[in-house]
């Protein structure tokens, strides 16, 4: 298994990962450091609390994103249904005119 060295908040970690997962870990490393910069108030917390708060922030953002995606899916389904109704009316109208 490959070992990847990542740096979060200037602290280095050596992590084992599956083959091909190195890039994913690098992306996660980058995102975590961005989140820490966005939430500078976390930098003064003890390490355990800092990482717990980061996890909670990221999870809450994912929950919010998932809820928004569900709403968008519902809207798209309604649009699709309306388009199908219109398509059926057009087909019926063209049959009557034929």
Main beta sheet: 2 strands, antiparallel
Low-confidence stretches: none
How large is the count of helical segments? 2
What is the structural class?
alpha+beta
Name the strands of the widest sheet in spatial order.
Answer: 1-2
Strand and helix order:
EEHH
Helix percentage range: 55-70%
Give the oligomeric state of the chains in this entry, treating copies of one chain as homo and distinct chains as hetero: single chain
Principal-axes geometry comes out as: elongated
The rounded Rg comes to 24 Å
Kindly state the mean pLDDT as a whole number? 92
Total DSSP E strands: 2
Portion of residues in beta strands equals 5-15%
* End-to-end Cα distance: 68 Å
How many structural domains in the coordinates? 2
What would your notes on this structure say?
The protein has two domains: 38 residues, Cell division protein ZapA protomer, N-terminal domain (Double Stranded RNA Binding Domain, 2-Layer Sandwich); 57 residues. It has 98 residues and is α+β, with helices and mostly antiparallel strands. The chain is built from two helices and two strands. The radius of gyration is 24 Å and the shape is elongated. A two-stranded antiparallel ribbon has the order 1-2. A hairpin with a 2-residue loop joins strand 1 and strand 2.
């Amino acid at each position: 298994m490959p070992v990847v060295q990542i740096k979060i908040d200037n602290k280095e970690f050596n992590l084992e990962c599956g083959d091909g997962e190195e890039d994913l870990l690098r992306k996660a490393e980058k995102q975590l450091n961005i989140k820490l910069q966005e939430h500078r108030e976390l930098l003064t917390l003890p390490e355990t609390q800092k990482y717990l708060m980061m996890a909670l922030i990221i999870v809450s953002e994912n929950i919010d994103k998932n809820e928004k995606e569900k709403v968008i899916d519902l809207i798209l389904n309604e649009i699709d249904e309306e388009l199908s109704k219109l398509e059926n009316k057009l087909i019926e109208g063209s049959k009557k005119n034929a």
